[in-house]
C-alpha cells in the first residue's frame, strides 16, 4: 500500500491530490487547492510551503509526485512557477519523501490517452478513474492526475519485475 501526494504547482493556486494505491486499485483520499492571496512572491511561497507541509502532516504520504516545469510564453511566469515548485519539493524532501516529476503531456497521455487533452477531459477522466461523484476543481484534478500517473508508472515497474530498473524523477534508469 502506498499513499501518493500529487502537486500541480502554481504561484497563486497550487493544486494537491492524495490517493492510496493498493495493488491495482486507486482510492481517493483528498484533494483541493492552496490559494495564496498575497501580492508579494515571498509571502506566497511561504504559504505554499506551509500548505504542503500541512497536507503531508495530515495524509502521511510515502511518495511525492509533481509536474515538471514547462516553458511558458512569459519568462517571469516560468520563474515564479519554478519557485513555487521549489518550495513544494523542499517541503517533501524535508519530510524525507521521494520526489518524482512528470511532464504535463505525459500526465495527460496517461490519464486521458492524448498529450493534448483539455483540462475538462482531465477532470472527467480523474472523476471516472477514482469513482468520484463530481469533477474535482481543475487544479486539484491536475494534481490527482499527476498522482495517478505516478501509480501507473510504478505499477508498470512492478510488472516488469527487473530489480535493476529504478524509477527516478519519473524516468527509468
Automatic annotation (TrEMBL):
Q: Which reaction does it catalyse?
A: Endonucleolytic cleavage at a junction such as a reciprocal single-stranded crossover between two homologous DNA duplexes (Holliday junction)
Record Gene3D superfamilies: Ribonuclease H-like superfamily/Ribonuclease H (3.30.420.10)
> What protein name does the entry list?
Crossover junction endodeoxyribonuclease RuvC
Name a single GO biological process: DNA repair
Q: How is the cofactor bound?
A: Binds 2 Mg(2+) ion per subunit.
Q: Which residues form the active site?
A: 8, 67, 139
Alphabetized GO MF terms: crossover junction DNA endonuclease activity; DNA binding; magnesium ion binding
Q: Gene for this protein?
A: ruvC
Q: What is its main location?
A: cytoplasm
Family that this chain belongs to: Belongs to the RuvC family.
Among InterPro entries, the record links this protein to:
RNaseH-like_sf, RNaseH_sf, X-over_junc_endoDNase_Mg_BS, X-over_junc_endoDNase_RuvC
Amino acid at each position: 500500500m502506498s499513499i501518493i501526494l500529487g502537486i500541480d504547482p502554481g504561484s497563486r493556486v497550487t493544486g494537491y491530490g492524495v490517493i492510496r494505491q493498493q495493488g491495482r486499485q486507486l482510492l481517493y483520499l483528498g484533494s483541493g487547492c492552496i490559494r495564496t492571496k498575497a501580492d508579494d512572491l515571498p509571502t506566497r511561497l511561504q504559504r505554499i510551503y506551509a500548505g504542503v507541509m500541512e497536507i503531508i502532516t495530515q495524509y502521511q504520504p510515502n511518495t511525492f509526485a509533481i509536474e515538471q516545469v514547462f516553458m511558458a510564453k512569459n519568462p517571469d511566469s516560468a520563474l515564479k512557477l519554478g519557485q513555487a515548485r521549489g518550495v513544494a519539493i523542499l517541503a517533501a524532501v524535508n519530510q524525507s519523501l521521494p520526489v518524482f516529476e512528470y511532464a504535463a503531456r505525459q500526465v495527460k497521455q496517461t490519464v486521458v490517452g492524448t498529450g493534448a487533452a483539455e483540462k475538462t477531459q482531465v477532470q472527467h477522466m480523474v472523476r471516472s478513474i477514482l469513482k468520484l461523484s463530481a469533477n474535482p476543481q481543475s487544479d486539484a484534478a491536475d494534481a490527482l492526475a499527476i498522482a495517478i500517473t505516478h501509480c501507473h508508472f510504478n505499477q508498470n515497474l512492478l510488472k516488469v519485475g527487473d530489480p535493476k530498473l529504478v524509477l527516478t524523477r519519473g524516468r527509468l534508469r
